[in-house]
């Protein structure tokens, strides 16, 4: 039987110390050099062990501070369904309320951003045409659970009260309700989920390890005329959230 790789042995040792309450939730771990010296391995082995435990939600890395024992954290259940589009209010807040969490978000909007090739293709416009781009960080009980970057064709909403998704009287109402306010009926959305590893920026924003598993959802909303009115890249950390799709059945 092949010998267990050293980093897995160290991961088991760290996990055991946590189980035996040597280190409690919120405790800052000793340096990698110190752990390596105690366990008879190099710092790179300790780093790989810690990265594994961070991806499993046992530890958490804090930029510029070190590695800590993660607080117990129940996975948030996120339901993807047409029923989440409410006549009033935010779909995300409705999602979080359904699982007993307080939903909120932070956002940054940039108007008149030239569309990159992939976004232009998804929106059915020419590369370089102007868009309104909004980056979101969604929070459940104050902790990040989802990222999203949304793109809308500028010529679709320019000069209206909904040109800025997070500004004006319809701020935060969601794509469907905002488009309805200017006479555009959104008939359906298409979502394409796929697993991948988090980028360094995503990991920093979500409080997870770089290269940890995330679900990347490419979502596009379409009007009843078949025009794409918004497309977004949604990133959800697998360790913190489970995604469930609800499929309506017509009778």
TrEMBL record:
<keyword id="KW-0805">Transcription regulation</keyword>
<dbReference type="InterPro" id="IPR028978">
    <property type="entry name" value="Chorismate_lyase_/UTRA_dom_sf"/>
</dbReference>
<dbReference type="InterPro" id="IPR050679">
    <property type="entry name" value="Bact_HTH_transcr_reg"/>
</dbReference>
<dbReference type="GO" id="GO:0003677">
    <property type="term" value="F:DNA binding"/>
</dbReference>
<keyword id="KW-0804">Transcription</keyword>
<dbReference type="GO" id="GO:0003700">
    <property type="term" value="F:DNA-binding transcription factor activity"/>
</dbReference>
<dbReference type="GO" id="GO:0045892">
    <property type="term" value="P:negative regulation of DNA-templated transcription"/>
</dbReference>
<feature type="domain" description="HTH gntR-type">
    <location>
        <begin position="4"/>
        <end position="72"/>
    </location>
</feature>
<protein>
    <submittedName>
        <fullName>GntR family transcriptional regulator</fullName>
    </submittedName>
</protein>
<dbReference type="Pfam" id="PF00392">
    <property type="entry name" value="GntR"/>
</dbReference>
<dbReference type="InterPro" id="IPR000524">
    <property type="entry name" value="Tscrpt_reg_HTH_GntR"/>
</dbReference>
<dbReference type="Pfam" id="PF07702">
    <property type="entry name" value="UTRA"/>
</dbReference>
<keyword id="KW-0238">DNA-binding</keyword>
<dbReference type="InterPro" id="IPR036390">
    <property type="entry name" value="WH_DNA-bd_sf"/>
</dbReference>
<dbReference type="InterPro" id="IPR011663">
    <property type="entry name" value="UTRA"/>
</dbReference>
<dbReference type="InterPro" id="IPR036388">
    <property type="entry name" value="WH-like_DNA-bd_sf"/>
</dbReference>
